[in-house]
User: What shape does this take?
Amino acid sequence: MKQTAAAAERNRGPILEALSPLLPAAGCVLEVASGPGVHVVAFAEARPELHWQPSDPDPLARGSIAAWIADTGLANVAQPLDLDMTLPDWPEQAGGHLGEGGGFDGLVTINLLHVAPWAACEGLMAGAARLLTAGAFLFVYGPFMRDGQHNSEGNRQFDRSLRAQNPALGLRDVNDVADCAARNGLALEQVVEMPANNRSLAFRLG
Assistant: This one.
């Protein structure tokens, strides 16, 4: 059941470098759309003082995450949850795994928004506002446009390919994502240019 992904193997280091300044000294971080589990295991190994909660709506991905956890023997990674950002009750499903009155100290998602309908972005932001503790962060990574412009010809072609498959998919604009976040009390703090023409967006819950 253990799977990997070449892109995840390549980008886990740069993503961790961009993510690390946001991470608290202690607490619990939720990853949504964890995929095969490569990222969450790498993050948990690098930051053992934090508790990591992976999730994915795909049962095959959850099986892979569980296999990664078993293979590494990490005690600071919980078993993956079945969470779908497009469903209105996903925050309740995630929150049910927290203690009384608890909240997540961070939320991470990697390569989700361009391969999901816009409802996933809306659900992500609304859920983050309900699940994060005050002042906690939301970290979003992937290929994004900015001011309506792609940052590479490769991303332009990738966007065109996604929209040809399904008009509901495609690269999102940083400005649109930031507006959606702001409507839910999350402020965009920084945009970091990442390798392979990706970007990481860091938001903070007010």
